[in-house]
Amino acid sequence: MSSFKSRFGKFIFLVPSVMFVLALIIYPMIYGMGLSFFNTNLINRWDFKGFLNYKNVFNNDYFMSSIIITLKYTIIVVAGHFVVGMLFALLLNKNIKNRAIFRSILMIPWLFPEIVFGVLWKWILNPTYGIFNFMLINMKILSEPTTWLGSVEHAFNALCLISIWKGFPFMMLMLLAGLQSVPTDLYEAGELDGCNRWDSLRYITIPSIMPVITVSLILDTVSWFRQYDLVSILTAGGPNNSTMLISRFIYDKAFQSFDYGEASAMAVIVFIICCVIGFIYRKMTTVNSE
Amino acid sequence: MKKLLVKILILAIVLVVPACSTVEKSSESKPLATQPSTSIPVTEKISARYLSCTINEKPDGDVEKEILADYIAANPNFELELIFVSATDFMPKITAMVTANDSPDMFSNYVQYFVALHDMGAMEPLTQWFGKDYVDGILPAVTQECMIDGELYAVPWSSIPTGLIYRADWFEELGLDVPKTFDDITEAGKALTRDIDGDNVIDRYGLALIASNNNSASSRFVAMLRNCGSYELLNINGKPMTAIGDEGSVKLLEYFYTWANVDKIIPPGAGEIAHGTAINLLAAEQAAMTFSGPHTIGSVLALNPDLKGKLAGAPMPTLKPGEQSVSMANITGLSISPKSKYKEALVDYLSFFTNFDNFKRYNAKSYRMPCHRTLIDSVKDNTDVFGFTGSLESAYPLFNVTYSGDIHIALAKALNACASGAESDAAKVAAEAKKQIEALIEKNK
């Protein structure tokens, strides 16, 4: 009995966590996967359809175009987060005056709930009442109000810029934590070897924080690939589907069309895509570390 | 260790078992023969939940709360927990609640969702509760929409037939006639779009066209479509058919494009103008016309009471001159969940809520129209809604199907694409919408 306790006793402490994971992650995932094989209203109609929902999804041009828009959006936004986040992280890593205040100010966009952030930007960019048009017209940059979120030319770019603004503090924080863990003697050694600032960044800083960069990129990519709140508030996927991200598309399918089966099939496909993205990043890290 | 194990197991059972069990609550109830005009005192403790799309709206919700307070004053044992949801989020919310076995006892309801909710078994049949006399008194245009297979599923509380709302004082000032066709709208819009303060910036626009990418815009589009001789979905010889793609629908989409992008009689960002935006534009005196129901007048006046008597309603313009304008009833109903254990009390509350006096005070602020013969006279003092009073007589019933939501998505995308200027080829947009609707019909055969 004593041997049983010592061997399996420790697993008892895992029970609460395992239960939560089973109830909140595994069960919904399996339920969602199960739904993808049915035509159902979730209550009293459960028609088994096999892989028909998947077939319909792959034949749906809007779904495919939505995946492409989402991939494009994710690449632009994550790259933007990385560039802006890295710039600010490098600045904040220096011993500048009032560093703590700047750090707090730069964190503000990340601290706002996405809904609040979206509503704020929607008002700022409102063509009739928005302060952005007002300022540009007063500065004689524009002669008449421009539609930022309601025109195909600007909506996607505006959404990307707002998303970059919203999410860069996360990347900044992660990279800053990484930068602060790089030993200073490495830079001193680099200096002795004739490294300039660019060389230090390229050959010392980035390789040293590569694990942090990888984790941050994985988390940021997956997080923004499934972005829903901002796009729903700002454009609702329009105009003319130009900002139709996959999460919004799935939401519409489930809760506007009430086609839970196809919506679940789409969600499963997105889940697989997210897994593939994670796998690619992991693979890249392994190759780099080797 | 053993004790700890036992405690954890007990805790696990306590946490898991209630979550897994579902308790079906029986609901014994006795039907009411006729609709009572006054409240019946409720003797047992009632603690019901009401999912409402209007309770937090102004001014509609304030009147609803007043009526509820009056009822509770007479029936202290009656409690109604108010859960607000916006009309655009109504269906996701009710679906989530019903599927989670957490249905509200009573909920707002919209005609386009009746079939889907009926399919879910989410609505209590109400004929037995309200009686045949009450059902027979519902206006004919409304009856057809509230009933499925001869059974009433929602008490039709109010109607908002879509028509034209315009600034009567500005029309008079400029000597303009009330538009009867969409070409008239163009002409009036051009005359009304002006730089008022002489700073070379347009500060008043002719039309606040609701053209955002949602079902609020698409439902107005449907009303306009029917006045262009087209239709989104009809039951023709037992088969669902769409006429989208025909001359009328293409012409209407052309108007959406032209008004926003060529004539520029709509404020910039036409594709972003939702119902709330249109209300703000009218209240701020930055727009002269919009297509909406009489409730919009109520909302505008709540923001700017100085406009009282300056706004007017008129029937929806038509594509061709001399044609009969038609509208749709656009009903807001109230339904009861079949799982509610407070059906009798809720029916009693609804009977009180929908009586003549209460509707009269509701209409005085909300401007929503009645759906029952006994309530017609309740709006006779509200002169601002005169333009809408005849609309219900010429109202056509919608052909509602489980995929009505999908049809609205296709239409909203089409109208938004044209209004936002994303697509200038209305025929192409209409053809795409037609393709989507036909695919839906085929899929749901």
Strand content of chain B: 5-15%
Helix amount of chain A:
over 70%
Separate helix tally of chain A: 14
Query: How much helix, percentage-wise, in residues of chain B?
Result: 40-55%
Please supply descriptive tags for the structure shown above.
heterodimer; A: 290 residues; mainly alpha; MetI-like fold; two-stranded antiparallel sheet; 14 helices; 2% strand; globular; B: 445 residues; alpha/beta; D-Maltodextrin-Binding Protein, domain 2; 2 domains; five-stranded mixed beta sheet; four-stranded mixed beta sheet; 17 helices; 43% helix
Task: Tell me what you see in this structure.
The complex is a heterodimer of chains A (290) and B (445). Chain A is mainly alpha-helical and 290 residues long. Chain A is built from 14 helices and 2 strands; from the N terminus they run H-H-E-E-H-H-H-H-H-H-H-H-H-H-H-H. In chain A, helix 2 packs across helix 14, helix 3 crosses helix 14 and helix 4 crosses helix 8. In chain B, the strands form 5 sheets. A 5-stranded mixed β-sheet of chain B has the order 2-1-3-14-6, with helices on both faces. In chain B, a hairpin with a 2-residue loop joins strand 9 and strand 10. Chain B is globular, with a radius of gyration of 24 Å. At the A-B interface, helix 1, helix 2 and helix 13 of A face helix 1, helix 3, helix 4 and helix 16 of B.
Compile the SSE list and pairings.
The complex is a heterodimer of chains A (about 290) and B (about 450).
Chain A: H1 2-12, H2 15-35, E1 38-40, E2 46-48, H3 52-58, H4 61-92, H5 99-111, H6 114-124, H7 131-138, H8 152-180, H9 184-192, H10 197-208, H11 210-225, H12 229-234, H13 246-255, H14 260-289
Antiparallel strand pairs in A: 1-2
Chain B: H1 2-20, E1 46-52, H2 60-74, E2 78-84, H3 90-99, E3 106-110, H4 114-120, H5 127-136, H6 140-146, E4 147-148, E5 151-152, E6 155-159, E7 163-167, H7 168-174, H8 182-192, E8 205-207, H9 215-226, E9 234-236, E10 239-241, H10 247-261, H11 275-283, E11 287-292, H12 295-303, E12 311-314, E13 327-328, E14 331-336, H13 343-353, H14 356-366, H15 386-389, E15 395-396, H16 404-419, H17 426-443
Parallel strand pairs in B: 1-2, 1-3, 8-11, 13-15
Antiparallel strand pairs in B: 3-14, 4-5, 6-14, 7-11, 7-12, 9-10
Helix pairs in contact in B: 2-14, 9-16, 10-16, 10-17, 11-12, 16-17
